[in-house]
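ok trying again, last paste got cut off:
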Amino acid sequence: MSKVHVFNAGPCVLPQVAIDNAIEALKNFSGTGVSLISISHRTKEWDAVMDECRALWKELLHIPDTHEVVFLGGGASLQFLYVAMNFLEKKAAYLDTGVWAHKALVEAQGIGEAYALACSKDKNYTYIPKGFDIPKDLDYLHITTNNTIYGTEIHEDIDCPVPLIADMSSDIMSRPVDVSKYDLIYGGAQKNVGPAGVIFAIIRKDALGRVSRHIPTMLDYRTHIDKLSMFNTPPVFNIFVMKETLKWLKGLGGVEAMYEMNKKKAALLYDEIDRNSMFIGTAAKEDRSLMNVCFVMAPGKEDLQDEFMAFAKSRGMIGIKGHRSVGGFRASLYNACPIEDVEALVECMKEFEDLKK
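nice, full thing came through this time. structure:
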């Protein structure tokens, strides 16, 4: 089979070593003679996986003792409800920067008073709003740090006078983060740190227990902190693969080293988009995502879109079709996407330009 280059927006490409180790664990987990997906989560062998995975999170992101890490099911979309249930007492604000940010806001509005502090929908979410004032009477400000559909990203931790909550589903572990600035960081694993089916939540412990409402046991973060993410049966396979992915990341030099790699990959592709007469980027340059590179055919070349898609597919490019709401193309450069794949895509774009000159 010819070489393929995977740029799927999610589930993401994962490191081969994590896949290989997962395959072995499916056959025989930790020398038990039992498959990983048949093992009891109440065994010492499974406890070791949970402990190691949690420790890797804390080490790689330099998570302070004020915070705890939990792993849950339900996807980041369920976390939209968790956030409001656990933190919304009187009023919360959301930075509306895309589909998922807006969905998080809508979920909170079903619980209490929540509104968009700033919004970039006026330009189809192609930029990150700036210059807004943050009221000091908010229970929290919610941000979505990376927007997969539109290719925009908040590149630095913002200084916030109120508790800050962030959905980092698609850029977690891709760059250094000052966890101490956040009361909660959460996200789905399937963009950078594992397969679909498990979420991570990094929670400031003393920020919990401040709302007056009753919180159902399963929706209370304190339940999962107290029970070490095993109040109910955890998604064992997904957590195992997450652990192996984080081991791979640590072996490469950690988040700081990965950040340098990610900047190189993104710069390589953005430089070609800006140079190539066939294409044009869609996101504001100062807000371009390192994870999701969105672009379209240049003005006057729109009728070549399907032809380029077929051309790219013939050269092994997988997953570059843009989201249906924006069209065009999207190349997702998550952590495990090797720079060689980006180089192959750039060469494909150059070849197409030469073909059409």
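cool. The mean pLDDT is 97. The two ends are 31 Å apart (CA to CA).
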